[in-house]
Structure prediction request, 459 residues.
Amino acid sequence: MFRIALSLLSLLFLTLLLRANDTIFVGHSALNRIYDMNKPLLFGARPFVGVKLITLEKNFTAYTQDLLKSKDRFLIRVDGTGRVYEFFDKKQDSLFIRRLDSTIFFGYNGGSFAFLYKDTLMSLGGEGYWKTNGHLRYYSENDHEWNLSPLNIEVPVTNMCMYHDHVNEEIQYIQTPYWDYGTNTYFSEFNVYSLNLSKKENKFLGQLNEELIKIFAQRVDYFTVPMPSIQMLLLFQGGTNFFLLDFKHNEIYQLVNTKIEKSLNSSSKNVRLEIIFEDNGYLYFTRSNDPIHKLDSVPISLKDFKKVGYRIYTPVSKLGNIYYLIIPGVVVLVLIAVIYSRRKSKEGKRIKIEQQFAMSDASDAIFKPMELELIQKIYAVSQLGKSYSVEDVNTALGLGKKSLEIQKKVRTDTLNRINHRYKMQFETQDDLIERVRSEEDRRYYRYFIREENMKKFVG
Prediction:
């Protein structure tokens, strides 16, 4: 009986131990070294490729996982799920980790920015279920759940480019274009904001410089790394472009030290940087093909960069914030008046476009940047005697990861708006972007632009 009781107690103890220790990392050189560092660290963020450490829950293997390190705590947050894990013990080269939260639902706030503020885990922005949001959330240690922290204004944003300024207790970030599916409205601006964490106030700083817009509009693979030793953000784009963003002074620097570029670029295919952070003038990183995940390093400082001739954003005054809201409305009203006047003077040639195309933004005759970019891409292909596929349009609109239903709706609405605005401005019944059935599969269309219509469009 004693042996049976002892066996049952041992089994119960083992079960409790396994539940407490959700997983064990054995021989992970980088994590062991970071765990032993008695200081806060800021890790790099990769919007398109993420570190995958938590693998027990199969539903979350596709979600990005963020490392967060304060002086006394080392955490993992699984983006878009609410899951929070903590490294709580180390024995030799083994790290023990346990889950802290009690959240159930997942698939929301994807692409949010996670950070530690006064040892509290927080996240900003994200998207999911038809909406990009600008909410500030904090993880409650008492409730083991996420709660909302109200802000003065909501700025819908994802973690495309954010910098946590520990010294000034601010988050500086770039707001990129997004769809509001609830109102079927596309916001095309690239803006720069700062969030004061102590006051919980968002502040509009200005519009992003066109040179930086080119980087973010391309949607190519890139990552950002906070540089706390010099209070700047390192932006690494496309394998060759390295920039330092100094939000405090609104300045940009470009890398001139090729040794750093060679250290970070691997000669092997499909090899990427994974864990990456800066500490005391050194950039530390691991590579995806290293089985023990050893931390390599390269010295880096402001001397390795040179200042470029343009700023991060065009600053605005307090009155500029008001004008920023009023002027576009005035411009739209003037354009509507001009168009109405032209159509009135040509009564015999007027076409009742409004009855043919009823849509939410029919009064807006201005082509949006994403629409102009799509027109240029389709026309470039058309000049070669080819046409644009449905997949090409989806990629150009950034819909690759959306559901088929969303892809079809956004694609159709965008093409209809382009053709509608073209007809309004040039008083024609011709479509600018025409479509034909695909010869390979008659269920799908292909898109092209005629030379004569493009000439009319460009004036």
The domain at 24-315 is CATH 2.120.10 (Neuraminidase). The chain has two domains: 24-315, 351-458. Residues 1-21, 318-324, 346-363 have pLDDT under 50 and may be disordered. Residues 27 and 354 are 67 Å apart (CA to CA).
